[in-house]
Amino acid sequence: MTKQLPDNPDFEPLTRTQVLVAMGITAIVLLVVAKLWLKFGSVTLLSLDFTVEGLLIGLGIGVGITAMSSVVYRLWSAYRKSADVYLNLVLKPLVLPDLIWLGLLPGMSEELLFRGVMLPAIGLNAVGVIISSLVFGVLHLSGSQQWPYVVWATIVGLLLGFSAVGTGNLLVPIVAHVATNWLSSFFWKLGHREVEA
């Protein structure tokens, strides 16, 4: 019999392999959707320019999102509870080297689809940013009690979307997303290491 997470009886704990496979499959599905949209839609991929400036802006945004997340986590109890359920499900089974994949797979595939393809398809404007961010937020819904996590993911999507529109460079939200995932998951793992032991 599998032990359920104490914070949310709706979720069975996942194994490390299950989390890694789910991340890989999700990344592949998002990449296929993006490729099909590009092939059959009249959409042009947002420019991807590998520049030092793009890297630095993306890193700065990633650090900023991580810092904001930490503040929101401390101040908003509903978000903290929602995030802990989600992060216990996803991060707890992983070991530190797995965080490389946790940053790269969602960071690249989600940004390619949401900011690289969906945003230009809807429009490189506030309406496009809002709609793509709402869809991005809903993607992070893992249960009816997880709405605060969806709200936060939508806010992050807005920041990433406006960074894409503002710079015209898909590299910026990709780097920001990857950096946010790496930093946030690393700090969460460190903070919960004694709990897991």
UniProtKB/TrEMBL annotation:
InterPro entries: Rce1/LyrA-like_dom. Residues 95-183 form the CAAX prenyl protease 2/Lysostaphin resistance protein A-like domain. The chain crosses the membrane at residues 20-38, 50-73, 85-105, 117-139, 151-179. Pfam families: Rce1-like. The keyword Transmembrane helix applies. Keywords: Hydrolase, Membrane, Protease, Transmembrane, Transmembrane helix. One of its GO terms (molecular function) is endopeptidase activity. One of its GO terms (biological process) is CAAX-box protein maturation. The keyword Cytoplasm does not apply. It comes from the Bacteria. This is CAAX amino terminal protease family. It comes from Coleofasciculus chthonoplastes PCC 7420.
